[in-house]
TrEMBL record:
Protein name in UniProt: Uncharacterized protein
C-alpha cells in the first residue's frame, strides 16, 4: 500500500511539473511575440483611369513598418464624402465607410478578404471621421442621423450597435480620436458646438476653444488634460505619458501652412515641434517607440505625400519612394497607425 501511495504521489508530482512547464513555455512564447507596426493608408483611384467622371474606388494600402513592405489589400468602388478604412488583420477583414451615390451620408461596410464578400453593417445615415480596432474592439468617431456632433463610440460587430461616450451630449464635438499602445489611452480633441457659434469665435478670434481628454478604451476615466483658446487645433496624438503632439493653425482659415506643436502635460507648456523637410502637415502619427513620426502632408519641395521622419537621425524619407502609386491614382486621403 505504501509503495502504491509513493508511486501515485510521484505521478501527481510529475503531472504538476508538466503543467507548470507547459504554462511557462506558453508565457515565454507570448512574451516573445512582439506586436508588429502597420500603417493603414486610405487612398482613392479613378475608375476610368484618368478622371472622376466614372467615379472613384477606395484603395487600402497596408504598410508593414518593420518589413518596409507595401501591399494593396482592397480596391472597391465607393461614393463616400470622406472615406475611412481599417484592416482587421486577425480576422482577414476590412471595414470602410461608403454611401449611396449622390447621398451625403455614410454607412459602415465589411469586406472579407478571403471570400471577397462585401457586407453592409449599418443602415442609417452616419458621418464617420475616425475608425480603428484595438484588442478586437472597434472604436470610431461618428455622428448618427439627427445629431449635430461626432463623438467616440464603440461598434459591436455582433449586435451591430453603437455605444456612445455620452449619447445625451449633442454639443461636444470630437475632432480627433486616437489610441496610444503604451499608455493604453484614447486621446480625444473636443470643442463645444454652442461656443463655436458665439460672436467671439465667428467674428473676433476665429479660434474654436479646444479641450483635450484622455480616457480608457472602454471610455472610463474620462479626464481633461489641456484647454486653450489661443490657437486652432485640428488633430492630436499622444507621444508618451507626458507629451502630446498637435497640429497648429493661428486661426481658422489661416493661409499659413499647418505645423505641429508639442504639449507637456505636467507643466502645460506648449512649444513648436519642427519636422525638418516638412512644409505642411495634414495628418500624422508617432511610432509607439517614439523613435519616428509619420506625416501626410507637403515637403519642402511642395510635394504631397506620406513621409517618415526619424527623430534620432533627423532623416526624412518618402514611404512610397520604392512603391510608385498607380497611374489611376487620385489622392492619398488619410492613414492610421496600428500595432498587432
Amino acid at each position: 500500500m505504501k509503495k502504491r501511495m509513493i508511486t501515485l504521489g510521484s505521478i501527481i508530482v510529475v503531472i504538476i511539473l508538466a503543467i507548470i512547464a507547459i504554462n511557462q513555455h506558453t508565457l515565454e512564447g507570448n512574451a516573445k511575440r512582439e506586436l508588429k507596426e502597420y500603417l493603414h493608408i486610405t487612398a482613392t483611384v479613378y475608375n476610368n483611369g484618368k478622371n472622376d467622371a466614372d467615379g472613384v474606388s477606395l484603395v487600402l494600402y497596408l504598410y508593414s513598418i518593420q518589413d518596409q513592405k507595401m501591399s494593396e489589400i482592397l480596391r472597391v468602388p465607393v461614393d463616400p464624402g470622406y472615406p475611412v478604412a481599417f484592416a482587421d488583420l486577425r480576422n482577414n477583414k476590412v471595414y470602410f465607410s461608403d454611401s449611396v451615390t449622390g447621398d451625403e451620408v455614410d454607412n459602415l461596410y465589411e469586406y472579407n478578404l478571403k471570400t471577397k464578400e462585401r457586407k453592409q453593417l449599418t443602415f442609417g445615415k452616419f458621418l464617420f471621421n475616425d475608425l480603428f480596432i484595438v484588442d478586437n474592439k472597434m472604436i470610431t468617431n461618428v455622428a448618427p442621423q439627427f445629431v449635430t456632433v461626432t463623438q467616440p463610440a464603440i461598434f459591436d460587430r455582433t449586435t451591430r450597435e453603437f455605444t456612445y461616450l455620452n449619447p445625451d451630449d449633442d454639443d461636444t464635438w470630437c475632432f480627433s480620436l486616437s489610441y496610444n499602445y503604451t499608455t493604453k489611452k484614447l486621446l480625444s480633441l473636443t470643442a463645444s458646438d454652442s461656443e463655436m457659434r458665439t460672436r467671439k469665435v465667428t467674428e473676433v478670434t476665429h479660434i474654436r476653444p479646444k479641450t483635450l481628454y484622455l480616457m480608457d478604451l472602454d471610455f472610463g476615466h474620462y479626464q481633461p488634460i489641456y484647454h486653450t483658446d489661443q490657437f486652432e487645433i485640428r488633430l492630436t496624438r499622444q507621444l508618451d505619458r507626458n507629451r502630446i503632439l498637435m497640429t497648429y493653425d493661428p486661426f481658422m482659415g489661416s493661409s499659413k501652412p499647418r505645423t505641429l506643436k508639442i504639449l507637456y502635460i505636467d507643466s502645460q507648456k506648449v512649444e513648436d515641434f519642427d519636422v525638418p523637410g516638412i512644409k505642411e502637415v495634414k495628418t500624422f502619427y508617432p511610432r509607439d517607440n517614439t523613435e519616428g513620426l509619420f506625416v501626410l502632408g507637403r515637403d519642402a519641395n511642395n510635394q504631397y505625400g506620406l513621409f517618415y521622419y526619424d527623430m534620432a537621425t533627423k532623416n526624412l524619407s518618402n514611404v512610397f519612394e520604392n512603391y510608385p502609386l498607380p497611374k489611376d491614382h487620385h489622392s492619398l486621403v488619410d492613414f492610421v497607425y496600428s500595432m498587432d
